[in-house]
Amino acid sequence: MFCLEFCGFRCGENENEVDKSTDPNLLHLPMTNGSLELFRHFAKQINLEDIEREAELIHWSHEHPLILFDVQKDDDIKDEITLCDGCVQPISFPFYCCSQCNYFLHLSCVNLPRELRHPIHHEHPMVLCQVMKFYKTFLCDACCVWTNGFYYNCETCKFILDVKCAFLPTSIAHQAHKNPLVQMKGSKHLCNGSGFSFSTSGFKCDDCRFKISHDSALLPGTIRHRLDKHPLILCYPPFFKHVDEFHCEICEREMNPSYWLYYCSDCDQSFHLLCIKDYYSNVKYGGTIEVNCHPHSLAFVRKARKRFSYCSCGHSYVRVIFVHTDIDIECPIFECGECNYTLCLDCI
């Protein structure tokens, strides 16, 4: 391993960090709790104060009536963590719920516009859609995370954005760079965060050549992983005075010190951005199905499997194409609770 020190800043802190006082309205990244804080930003874009709150409504996304639950008048709701079927974030008041199904929608998700013109895809309008089956997932072309929640889709170009990415502002501030960054369309640009090229969307500095992919911009400031008991902190170069070349704890390959990494100073452990990323963080699990090939119900769950682990059909679980093929990932599968039987999403 190595002794990692930082030139001019500590883990996750940059001497060139943009001054938050310059524009308090900028979205400042990275966020401590990336998905949750990003949802809060997204929810602010929907002006809830001007929305009439119907006690019961029929929504295009669900076959049954939805009932409004408001914290001001409904104090008997159980304090259980459940996820919104629109944004796939923890439900919070006010929200709508189906009394017959495990179906929940934030008030902001109920009132999403059905059509959207987006700056990184202005050729065609994007239409708000939902998955036809609860286990069907789509890959967001911006953050590269799978989702079974609502998404905006351009059918002509096969371009998809999940609802949080669709409402990102056109300008942001990021801790890794001193100047504000503006949204841009990708065209095989090199990301200064990961070192990989991106072709969908990202953010750039108008004063220099600094560019980061949408994917890198949305990385959380801290993350947890089973290989380390401490929170891992997102760190930026320059790094120096490492005794040896340093390696990712997951894939065990050498890391390039020119790009961002996640680091634990207590354990002196480092991780590639792509190796540690949770590609299925935006999926709501639960629900069961019946299949002809097995006598018991199968539950939609998340299981840790290696890339070359196989389900009962003989196919690999993992659908994400990785740079390294020997890393573990937790991915959605169908599992029988009574016996050792599983099916991958492709088989279902």
Keyword list:
5-stranded mixed sheet, 27 strands, 30% strand, 5 helices, disordered N terminus, mainly beta, 348 residues, 4-stranded antiparallel sheet, globular
Taken as a percent bin, the fraction of beta residues is 25-35%
Mean pLDDT: 81
Q: Order of strands across the biggest sheet?
A: 2-13-14-17-18
Number of strands: 27
Give the C-alpha Rg. Answer: 21 Å
Helix content: under 10%
Number of helices in the DSSP assignment: 5
User: What structural class results from the helix and strand content?
Assistant: mainly beta
Molecular shape: globular
- Low-confidence segments, given as residue ranges, are 1-10, 319-325
Keywords: Repeat
Protein name: DC1 domain-containing protein
Pfam families: C1_2
Organism: Ilex paraguariensis
Structure in words:
The chain has 348 residues and is mainly beta. Among the domains are: 220-276, no CATH class; 288-343, no CATH class. The chain has five helices and 27 strands. The strands form eight sheets. A five-stranded mixed sheet has the order 2-13-14-17-18. The protein has a four-stranded antiparallel sheet with strand order 3-4-5-6. It has a four-stranded antiparallel sheet with strand order 7-8-11-12. β17 (201-204) and β18 (211-213) form a beta hairpin. It is globular. The chain starts with a strand and ends in a 5-residue tail after the last strand. Pfam families: C1_2. Keywords: Repeat. Residues 61-110, 121-166, 228-276 form the DC1 domain.
